[in-house]
Design goal:
Elements: E1 2-6, H1 18-31, E2 36-42, H2 45-50, E3 52-63, E4 66-75, E5 78-84, H3 86-89, H4 107-122, E6 133-137, H5 138-141, H6 143-150, E7 157-162, E8 170-171, E9 192-193, E10 196-198, H7 199-206, E11 209-212, H8 215-220, H9 231-237, E12 241-243, H10 273-283, E13 293-300, H11 306-318, E14 322-329, H12 331-343, E15 348-352, H13 356-365, E16 368-371, H14 381-388, E17 391-395, H15 398-403, H16 409-414, E18 420-422, H17 427-442, H18 444-455, H19 461-480
Parallel strand pairs: 1-2, 1-6, 2-5, 6-7, 7-11, 11-12, 13-14, 13-16, 14-15, 16-17, 17-18
Antiparallel strand pairs: 3-4, 4-5, 8-10, 9-10
The structure holds adenosine-5'-diphosphate-glucose.
């Protein structure tokens, strides 16, 4: 079975967050289930530099206002289609925003072009390649099912995966013709969304199946609040909406063989983690010690609950913990963290930036990974934490709820506990969770047992990809029945 995926990020070529990990991790895992994936991505500089065995599939003098080529080739072991359109995508740095941190003003056109190219490939313009299923990720790709619909095509079937409902891609209605949609598409039952054009809304409306990245989040987004304006439409999808928990790349994230660590280790050699902890103390200029060390690896944003962490930092330090933060994002949160670090020298270390290797060292050296999100579709950092025996302290939402088993008395008795959950997302609840963490950590045999349990879980994409393969097959089998 052939699947055409389309997305704006793919690890290891271009990444701003978890979307890239998923888009890069799924294809090799789906191959084990007999599903061949080719992924269409924009021709960013980093993608074009990595592309090998390139062939030109098609060339357009004028495509969404730009000269463009559709390339095919391979990079980092992935089969790719690349939309090379220098006017739209030859921009270094963040794929969505300029050096001033503001979204590129032409994002509407850039990602409509991407989705439209996916549609052209999907409908068979570049045969013999014709996919059985089109799999679009997030708002940047979400117009593709709408193009299929307005192009009069019901095949191939389409799946939209929502990684984060907070990013919806809403643009002016004046763009309708410029992005190649007919006048009648602008209706409540079409692409219209609160007086504009909603890219994610269009994908939800027209995809045959909508998935999100955990069952709990799939249920949450059908409610007002977490539904962020789309809950009504999502409720209407009924059984066509489901949640599939993300896997992780267990080769890239493997404590037994991780070049970013000072010392590699397994569940049987957990004492070696101490060397990573020492390396982490060095990197973050912390006072060395045996006391509990909490790590955070995150976008600094409201979603991730960072304002609450900042409020709670004095009590977290007073409880005897040290904290390292690896994060980038909202300037006021970055400033507040720098201030907290200056107020608690040697206790709070902050690296305001993006550093993939340092993320691995945090997972390999910290005792716990804190993920206090207000909402979290799945979350990957807690999964990496489980794999590294860096036990997650998480809010009880979305994928965090689905993937961490709270260390309550019953769970500990049965030996299934893997972390700590708390609710609501408030300073008080977080502080109470930290108290529980400190007490659990002090009971070294119990802590070790939880670490071993966490590290024994199968979090691999190979396992999770089976659910996607089954979904794709169910769509194709309906057709051939
Ligand atoms: N400063 C930094 N330096 C280095 N690495 C950093 C970093 N900040 C973040 N990262 C990395 O970026 C990724 C973040 O992934 P998450 O899933 O936790 O959140 P994100 O909100 O980006 O993803 C969205 O999509 C994913 C994928 O579906 C969902 O899991 C999630 O809930 C949803 O919000 C991880 O690989 C993490 O290690």
């Amino acid at each position: 079975m052939q699947v055409l995926a389309v997305a704006s990020e793919i690890f290891p070529l271009i990444k701003t967050g978890g979307l890239a990990d998923v888009v890069g991790g799924l294809p090799p895992a789906l191959a084990h289930h007999g599903v061949e994936v080719r992924t269409l991505v924009p021709g960013y500089p980093s993608v074009l530099r990595a592309l090998e065995g390139t062939t030109v599939v098609a060339e357009y003098g004028y495509f969404f206002g730009a000269f463009c080529k559709l390339l095919s080739g391979r990079a980092a072991g992935l089969d790719l289609f690349v939309l090379e359109a220098p006017q739209l995508f030859w921009r270094e740095g963040n794929p969505y925003s300029g050096p001033d941190g503001q979204p590129w003003p032409d994002n509407s056109v850039r990602f409509a072009a991407l989705a439209h190219m996916a549609y052209l490939i999907a409908r068979g313009d570049f045969g013999p390649y014709v996919p059985d299923v089109l799999h679009a990720h997030d708002w940047q790709a979400a117009l593709a099912p709408a193009y299929l619909h307005y192009g009069g095509r019901s095949r191939p079937r389409s799946v939209l995966t929502i990684h984060n409902l907070a990013f919806q891609g809403q643009f002016s209605r004046d763009l309708l013709y410029a992005i190649g949609l007919p006048g009648d598409a602008y209706s409540l039952d079409g692409v219209e969304y609160y007086g504009g054009i909603g890219y994610l809304k269009s994908g939800i409306r027209f995809a045959d199946r909508v998935t999100t990245v955990s069952p709990r989040y799939a249920a949450e987004i059908c409610q007002p609040g977490a539904g962020m304006g789309l809950d009504g439409l999502l409720r209407q999808k009924g059984l066509a909406l489901s949640g599939i928990v993300n896997g992780i790349d267990v080769d890239t994230w493997n404590p037994a063989d991780d070049p970013a660590l000072a010392a590699t280790y397994t569940a049987d050699t957990l004492e070696l983690r101490a060397r990573n902890k020492a390396a982490l103390e060095g990197r973050f200029a912390l006072v060395p010690g045996d006391g509990p060390l909490i790590g955070l690896i995150t976008r600094l944003s409201w979603q991730k609950g960072m304002d609450i962490v900042i409020e709670a930092l004095p009590s977290i330090i007073a409880a005897g913990c040290r904290v390292v933060v690896l994060g980038t994002g909202d300037a006021p949160l970055e400033a507040a963290l720098a201030k907290a670090s200056a107020a608690h020298p040697g206790q709070i270390g902050v690296f305001a930036g993006y550093d993939e290797n340092l993320a691995h060292l945090v997972q390999g050296g910290a005792d716990a990974i804190l993920v206090p999100s207000r909402f979290e579709p799945c979350g990957l950092t807690q999964l990496y934490g489980l794999r590294y025996g860096c036990l997650p302290i998480v809010s009880r939402v979305g994928g965090l709820f689905d993937t961490v088993i709270d260390a309550n008395a019953a769970a500990r008795e049965q030996g299934v506990a893997t972390g700590i959950q708390f609710e609501p997302v408030t300073r008080e609840a977080l502080e109470a969770a930290i108290e529980r963490f400190v007490a659990l950590y002090a009971d070294a045999p119990a802590w070790r047992a939880m670490q071993r349990q966490a590290m024994s879980l199968d979090l691999s994409w190979t396992r999770r990809a089976g659910a996607y393969a089954a979904l794709f097959r169910s769509l194709v089998e309906v057709d051939s029945a």
